[in-house]
Amino acid sequence: MRKILSLAILMAFAAHSFAAAEAKPTETAAKPAASSTAPRAWSTYQPVKAPEVPAVKQSTWVRNPIDAFVLAQLEAKSLKPAVDADR
User: Fold this and answer.
1) 43 vs 46, 47, 49, 53, 68, CA distance in Å?
2) Environment class of residue 72 by beta-carbon count within 10 Å: exposed (0-12), middle (13-18) or buried (19+)?
3) CB atoms within 10 A of CB 80
4) pLDDT value at position 65?
5) Which residues of the chain have pLDDT under 50?
6) What is the pLDDT of residue 26?
7) Which pLDDT value is given to residue 35?
8) Cβ–Cβ under 8 Å, residues 2 and 10
9) How far apart are CA 48 and CA 46, in angstroms?
């Protein structure tokens, strides 16, 4: 009896799933307006540019351009970089 009940529930669920899959949407999505200039404004279509490296007060700590960006953020918050670790 339990197997028959489980099978009946499974069949009802499957029938409901197939009916839901066959249902057609009631509304269609509007097509986006085509524009020839809109995609060109995206950042992926812009040429690659090197960012301007910020000027810092403690230039001796800077070893590469990334250090200058980090140090500029630290100086903006009135913080000092940590001392170099032993290698």
Assistant:
1) 5, 8, 11, 20, 24
2) middle
3) 10
4) 94
5) none
6) 65
7) 61
8) no
9) 6
The one-letter code for the residue type at 85 is: A
Tell me if 53 sits within 8 A of 65, measured CB to CB. yes
Q: Which two tokens stand for residue 85?
A: 């670790």
Q: How confident is the model at residue 58, as a pLDDT?
A: 92
Domain boundaries, the chain: 53-81
75 close to 81: Cβ distance less than 8 angstroms: no
Question: What is the distance in angstroms between the CA of the first residue and the CA of the last residue of the chain?
Answer: 74
Query: What's the chain's length in residues?
Result: 87
- Residue linked to tokens 């529930």: 9
Q: Which two tokens stand for residue 15?
A: 């029938």
